[in-house]
Amino acid sequence: QNMIGTTLGPDVKPVYWGQCDATGGPYPDPAPGSGVCPSNQQLTTRASFDQWYRDVDGVNVSKLERLTLQRDAADGAYKYGNNAFFPWDNDPRSWVGRGQEQLLLDHDFGFTTEIHSYFQYNPNAQQPQVLSFTGDDDVWVFINRRLVVDIGGSHVELTRSVTLDQATADSLRLEAGKIYEMALFHAERHSDASNFNLALTGFVRARSRCVPRCGDGVV
């Protein structure tokens, strides 16, 4: 925790904030020594962290895919659950696929995930909008570019959530009926398991509609 800033940077990426001390407060960048973090030292410099979600030739390779969430009839939430989350397995574009790295426990570890989605904020005191995530390792979720879930660090499977009640919505500067971006950043750093479980309740995606106007001369 406390590894990154509480708002996204100008390029809509997390901003490395440094390691944390015994009180949980951030060190200045670069981090001096090991620090005392919940999971011990996690990183060394801003430069190394900046490579996680930015393409750097010879360091990383990226691909674009869709993540489909299925509706759970029991609670109405849209969910994606995978306790064997290895999107780069058997992909010839990965470093393992190119023969430059080795598989660990028959899987391609060492990757990050970045998800962007839009939703309409609809306040509902009885059934507020809720985002829940369970997984390892680092996970950060931003709504309206503000940090709402922080389970950074290399750790065992953990669960965190955010509920858009009135107080939270006010702190995020959300207005009823308006569209906002939700951004999730994840990193898999362990070499024994990869869990990724996301659930969204009440986040119904608003869709725009194009309708004809007779007489405007446009087909």
Written description of the protein model:
- The chain is mainly beta.
- Helix content is 5%, strand content 26%.
- It contains 2 helices and 9 strands; from the N terminus they run H-E-E-E-E-E-E-E-H-E-E.
- It has a 5-stranded antiparallel sheet, with no helix packed on it. It has a 4-stranded antiparallel sheet with strand order 3-8-5-6, with no helix packed on it.
- The longest helix is centred in the C-terminal third of the chain and has 6 residues, at 166-171.
- The termini are far apart.
- Mean pLDDT is 84; it is low at 21-36.
Radius of gyration: 20 Å
Distance between the termini: 55 Å
Series of H and E elements: HEEEEEEEHEE
Proportion of residues in helical segments: under 10%
> Can you summarize the main beta sheet?
5 strands, antiparallel
- Number of alpha- plus pi-helical segments: 2
Which consecutive residue ranges, at least 5 long each, have pLDDT under 50?
A: 21-36
* DSSP E strands, number: 9
User: Which structural class best describes the helix and strand composition?
Assistant: mainly beta
> Which band does the percent of strand residues land in?
25-35%
**What's the pLDDT, averaged over the residues?**
84
Report the principal-axis shape. globular
**Strands of the largest sheet, in order across it?**
1-2-9-4-7
Short account of what is shown:
With 219 residues, the protein is mostly beta strands. It has helices at 46-50, 166-171; strands at residues 70-71, 78-82, 111-120, 130-136, 139-143, 146-150, 158-163, 179-188, 195-201.
